[in-house]
Structures
1.
Amino acid sequence: MQVWASDFLPSLVIRRELSQRDYFSRSAGKVLLLDYLEQELQFMARCKESGAQTHRIVAMNEEWVCLVPWWAVWPFETMLLPRRPQIYRLDDLQPHEVSSLAALLSQVLTCYDNLFKTSCPYSFGWYQKPLQSSKPEEKCYWQLHGLFLPPLLRSATVKKFMVGYELLAEAQRDLTPEKAAEMLRNAAGVHYLKAGNL
């Protein structure tokens, strides 16, 4: 585990900060990631009504949603979002939200392990509200969110490498976010080691 702190905002955090702040000011105080989450939940409901499985939600419970964002770079990248507004940092979570987060993390990690039939490697991190971004009493544009970034592509032995066009221009997806979410959902259930499916 690594914990990083700095006296400046890294460029990726600045982009997230500016995107969320800009949306907040252009949309009369709406929170970008909460609006996006609502769109994904509505899209999932429409898919289920029509019998389609083409939505991007991997798993969810009362307090949390795990989904493959449409802008994901890594094949099986997922985002964790709390459903309650105004959760800026991990210390804003209520005890029941921490418990439901632990349950969802266990479910998602089992999906990854089952999909690849291995203890799936990944990088994971939280994006919390930058400290200098607003006064504590102000309604804020930020929403806590986490990212899983597993490097695997098709199997435990096939890794995704960012090369060529991806390094020099922009990332290319190996499969759609909808397909990645479907594959992860289909891998849900009992952990493959406990099920005896080696």
2.
Amino acid sequence: KLDNRAARVGPFMRARWVDWSASHSNSSMRFHSSSLISLLVLLPSALSQSCTLTALGAGKDDSPQFLSAMQSCPLVTVPSSTTLNISSPLNMTGLSNRHLNLQGTIKFNPNVAFWTAHGFPFTFQTQITFWILGGTNIQIDGGGVIDGSGQVWYDGFAKSSSLARPIILTLFQATNVIIQNVRMINSPEWFNFVNEGKNVTFNNVNLTAVSTSKNPAKNTDGWDIYRSDTVTIKNSFINNGDDCVSFKPNATNMIVSHLNCNGSHGISVGSLGQFAGMFDIVENVIADSVTMSNAQNGARIKAWAGAGVGSGIVKNITFSNFIESNVDHPIVIDQCYMTSASDCTKNPSNVFIQDVFFNSISGTGSSATVATLSCSPGARCSDVNVNNITLTGKKKTQYTCQNVQLGGSSASLFGTCTST
């Protein structure tokens, strides 16, 4: 039975990633042969429905035994005394009913040349990733650590801004997933990418990306959600160098709650409408009970304008109960993203924004302007509401708005919005 199950998983993985396998034939052959050896070693544990992993040590690659365990055992345990050395890509797609009890550490080898050549590629924003996880009914917990060895990547990116840096974990076509009670540290770029996922929950997943050199940990988003439905992120601390959470195109029915974000670029909807011929949707998003400290942005929506870009809709978005401290831009709508004012007037955004609520947002900004709601001309923003806003800026606090009619109890703070 075990051998049959392994045989079913193997062809699916090769077929799904045929381009990758074709371009990495030698490493792929080594990977699969090692996996078969590990599978035989793990057979007794697999028959008892669990596998416990021990690191091979001496710098050896633990990826094959980790892959074999996840393919063959419903419960996989990494003990607290174990650090797995991951030196080859992890393709864990097609799993079903799997539980990873991560008490120890999963550490990705800091071999920049290898990973730039062998990381799994995604066309969206030309990303690569260390680890792809997909399938149904998957749980990761246990209090352990996933370490992306990010410092070499922060230093490398400072020398070459074209350096492709891996995402730690990509959920691809994953349904009914719970990831909770783990830490992720030192991600080279994004920590988590949810791509074509459904019913995914992250709970008490604490993220830290802090450089130990003069080179910052750039683009270390906490979560990026793309083409996914029903994702919840809650009860987590994030210390990073980019968006705390970013809702990319076609993210629907999202809940973010009880997050503490430090040094980030905020909770961001978008950017949307970047690519010509594409219609982007983000709708039904709740971001509630968020503490945002020392950040570039707090609650933000951003959509492209100008010639030759895409279109879309942002609908039913609620930011509520934000406490902000030393944030550059606590409240933002930017419907002229990456576009000059004159070009935005000439070519307004085709991403329409409607039914947006900023409720109970308090704290301090790092400059005088604490809220900027900049919409394209032509009624591209509608039903934007501001309620119980108590933000304080440096010197004289300012609230600004453009091309939008505001509702809500705090609308008077903005005065009369300008028109372009």
3.
Amino acid sequence: MAGLDISSLFFTEDLLNHLYGELDINTNAPSVQANRGPFAYGCRSPNQITTIVMEGNKHRVLTYNSAQHYYQSERARMMCAPELADKVRRSDQPVTDGWVPDEDYEKHVNEWDRCKVDVAFKANWLKFNQNKDLAYELLLTGNRPMVHEDSYLGGVCWGKSISWPEINRKMLMIIREDLRRRAA
């Protein structure tokens, strides 16, 4: 697996499974909790993720306090409106504040289902690539397996049924390998 060019890749469950299959994971080593501490998708720190977007002919810098803020904000933007996305981005409760009206949800659920894994991967990739301390913590896990023990994330999650615990742990191990290769 070469360094990932996330601008040219669209991440799906199939692509994650392919990239995960290329990893050298020491299955005999003790596992690492993927949903605790700095590895948790909701782990917060001020301005953890920064993006630059074009609005008309001007650039706008957006900051997010967690990968969850980024994910929920993108979901709100795609399914509802930019105003809701901005509210979610600044929210203390991005999951709750990111709920969209049923009629908007029904109109856009298929589009969201198609891209939500891509958004989640890029949110986590930005989190670890823009924060050296978080990247360092992830790299310290070596090639140990990462497990995700959180029953809340199982089952149906805004659309088709997908296993977020499985996806999250694979994303973290793929990002860890990408960080390792970029550092070499």
